[in-house]
Design brief:
With 63 residues, the protein is mostly helical. The protein has 2 helices and no strands. It has a domain of 40 residues.
Length: 63
């Protein structure tokens, strides 16, 4: 059996697995403001955090 480090052969991780691994391994958190798994209050919190850290989004985007 051949061993490949993550990202260098074998199976590719899907977007959700990639985000899950990022959170567990490095503490990075990536979430879409349009994620249907979030309640309105959770989406609003994500929006507020995004605006605080990175500024307002351009017009024409969801939200």
């Amino acid at each position: 059996m051949r061993w490949h480090p993550p990202g260098y052969g074998g199976e590719r991780r899907g977007p959700d697995q990639f985000k899950r691994d990022g959170w567990r391994e490095t503490g990075l958190f990536a979430v879409s403001i349009d994620d249907d798994r979030l309640t309105w209050a959770e989406r609003e919190l994500v929006r507020q955090l995004g605006e605080k850290l990175y500024g307002k989004r351009k017009k024409g985007k969801t939200g």
